[in-house]
Structures are given as C-alpha cells and as structure tokens.
Amino acid sequence: MSNFSADKVLSKKATGIKPSGIRKFFDILEEMKDVISLTVGQPDFITPWHIRAAGIESLEQGKTYYTSNSGTLELRREISRYLSRRFNLEYAPQNEILVTVGGSEAIDVCMRALLNPGDEVIIPEPCFVCYEPLTTLAGGIPVSIATREEDDFKLTPDALRAAITEKTKLLILPFPNNPTGAVMTRKDLEAIAEVLRDTNVCVLSDEIYAELTYGEERHVSIAELPDMRERTIIASGFSKAYAMTGWRLGYIAAPAEFMATILKIHQFAIMCAPTTSQLAAIEAMANGDPDVAAMCAEYDRRRKYVLHRLRKMGLPCFEPHGAFYIYPRISDTGYTSEEFCEKLLYDYGVAVVPGSAFGASGEGFVRISYAYSVAHIEKAMDRMESMLADLKKQ
Amino acid sequence: MKNILELLESDSRLTHEQIAAMCNKEVGDIRKMIEDGERDGIILGYKTIIDWDKTDREYVSALIEIKIAPQKDRGFDHMAERIYNYPEVQSLYLMSGGFDLAVIIEGRTMKEVAYFVARKLATLDDVVSTATHFVLRKYKDKGVIYGPAVVDERGNCL
Question: Which of A82, A135, B140, B153 has a C-alpha 20 to 30 A away from that of B66?
C-alpha cells in the first residue's frame, strides 16, 4: 500500500485559490438540456475566411516550426502599425512587442515580471475573473476597488487615490469592461493619469475589447496620455476583435525596460505562440479592419435591442458602451444574483451569469452576453420577461 | 433608411420593434419607413431561403444563356419582359460578355426545364441561341451557405 497523497504534495498557494464562481455555474449548465444560454464570452462569428485561409496556407506550406520567442517580426510589425493607426501608440516591433498565447498569458507574464512578495495590485471590480488569482500566484496581494452603477462602472480618481498605499505596485485597468460593458473615456483616463503621476504605480491596461466600443468616442489607451507610456503595459489580443478565440493569440506592448524581463518569463514558460495562429494574425491585422467594423456594427444592433428589452421588462440597466455584455441590476426582485440566475435557469430555461462571479461588488447584477443571433436573444428575452411578470404577480 | 434596408436584407424577420431599438427610432417611424419603401417599390418582397435538397421535393434549376438580336424598334427590355413573365423564370439578368440574357429557371425535372427552354425561350423571335447549364448542386445562394444546420459549439470558457 502506497502512502502517497496528492493533497500533501500540491502547492498551498495553488490549492488556496478559490475555484471560479463562473465555472461552477457553467458546470450546472452543461448538465441541462434545452437551455437558452446567454453566457458565452466569445464572438458568435467565425474567424473571417481570409484569415482562416492564411492559417491554412501556412500549414500547406509546411510552416510548422517555432517562431522566435517574441513572435514573428512581421506580426510584431503589423501589431506596431495597428497600435499606431488605431490608438496613436508607438511601440518598436524589435523590443517592445511580444506575441503571447492569448490575452490571458499576457496578463500572467506581466504579473510575474512585476510583482515581489507583498506588492499590492489594485483591481477595479467587477471584472474578468483571472486578475485576482494570477496576482496571488505571482506573490502579490489583490486589492479590489468596487466600481459603482452611479459612476457608470468607471474607475474614479478618488477611489483610486484612496486605494493606493506604499505597497501598491500595479493598477489593472480592465476597460472596456467584462462584465459591465463600461468604458473609460479620454477625460476619465486623464483624471486617473493625474493620480498616477505622483506615484510609482504601474498600469496593466487590459485592452482585449478595445475594438468593441459603441458611440462617438472610440477606445482610448491610457498609454497615449502624457507620462503614462513609461509605466503602462498593454495586454490585448485577437480573440474578441477578429473572432479568433480558439487561435489563442494575444500580445503585450510595453516599454523595452519592462519587455526584457517579461520576455524572459515567456520564453521559459511558453517558448512562443502558435505559429499557425501568428501567420493568420498577420492577415487579420493587415486586412481585417472591415471585418472588425462589420462585427462591431452587428454587436451594436444587438446591444441596443437587449438594452431596450431589459428596460422594457422593468430591469434598471446601465447602457454599456463596450465589449459584448450587458449588466442589468436585478436586486429589486429581492433575489441575490445567484438565486435570480438559478430561478431563471431552472424555471424558465435561460442561462445568464451571476454578477457575484465577477467580484463581491457584482452582487445584485447579472451578466448577459449578446454574442448571439437576434432570434436567440429574442427567445431568451421573452422568457426572462415572463419570469419578471410572474414575480410581479406574486 | 439605408440602415433599415440593410437590416431587412440581412434578416427580413426582424420585427418593427427590433429595428426601432437597433436604430434608435420609434416603432411608428420604422413602420412608416417600411411602408413607404414597399409603396415606392424599393422593398419588393420578403422570401425564405430553403434547401430543397434536404426535403423530398423534386426540383431542378438551370442557368440559361441567351443570345439576342434586338430589333430596331424594341431593345432588350422588351425581350426581358417576354421572358420574366413566365413563372418558371426565377431570375433574369442582362449581361455583358459573350451572351445577353442570363435566365435562372426552376422546374420539377430536367425534362420539364428542357421543354421550357425549347418551346418557350428558343422560339422567341429575337433569340439567336440558347445554352442550358443545369445546376448540379447549390453551395451558396444570397449569401447563405447550403450546409448542415449551424450548431453552437462554443465552449463556456471563463
């Protein structure tokens, strides 16, 4: 009989990490049939054909080798041109751009490159679920700031100032935001930059949804503002803008002083991002602007329709200006987020994600993805509307 | 108006309410704009795309190239009218290049289509010649790919 026990050998730091609340909900969902789901956090579009064709062609030509650790120079050049034309950002392809395995790896390696034990990382919540565990794994201490509905879920300078301590190393700037759909305008960012100027705090700006904004002002990167480039690391990727989630491709743009260390971690842990994906991504960046615009226009129509339906059924709802999520407040129903989602799922066959999965401040809200066809959304909204009508009768 | 037409062209089942929400307009305004479009002949109809190969209905379609020798007093439009009024004619285009009119015909059998061409089209006064090409398989029509129903296989990742 062996005395071996896996429990005894696993890392305490790793086992101490809470499982994701969103994952738990997805597991329930997978067991159920005939559910109309509005939970998916990825585009319903297929990667545009010319991009797929570029990937296929690269395989036909036998391009199945590793690339350099940073990614192919041609792709880094395209990324550099893109950042310049879209966001007025200048990054040298040679030493300031790194191609990663999705935006997630980008976030992970940045945390590991920056954090010393005990460093505090400010995380505006609600937000994507990975920042807190990745901070912990890198030895940092997550410090959350709750963004509020009355502030349009933006990070305010006052809240930031109050959260900064001597130990603060990094501010995560997750805008356009998952799950709220909030964006930070140039004016909003200027106020944040003003707070940061007096500090030594770095910024990890997660701009994965940068292409998906709706309204007059398109996405602005904090790195564009005076004195901000030197302290900012941009994490972004191809998943959301080009409908390329499965290709697992992202990138980091950061000053060379950061990049040398980030690259070291990436090269030892990952080697390089998938070659096929990189070669397809060159085509995406060089010729994909019209595809992005068309997909964005379609999301915008759905966004307006869902917002209209939610407000009509009586749910207070902040108008999202980015990403493909909408974030109605359900607290008036008397249910918690989780209870609301469970009732909607079990009694009405519609799946949405409890806001509480995105941090404590998400309680009282639910996240609805509109990365679905209008007909699909309509069916789900009809069912949700009948749930709310039934609740009113009680 | 262009925006509304594009929406309807991509999905004619969109309701007035949906279009209104998507275009930031009142439902009444959308109703009126669509009615105006119908009245002015801008919106000509609403159809469904059906893959008949997945049913047991017999059907065949063909593309017919027609060369015409138009007479002095009547141009292509006159010939086109003589042709498009047949219910068998699904589409009719005036073309540049090696022939003049492209006709798409649908019938139940190849024989039926062949008879139609021989008896109704080839015999028209100004028709010089016809060439019939039967469609063996439809891969894509009106921007829609003919294939298996799309299944949402996206994983629920974080």
Answer: B140
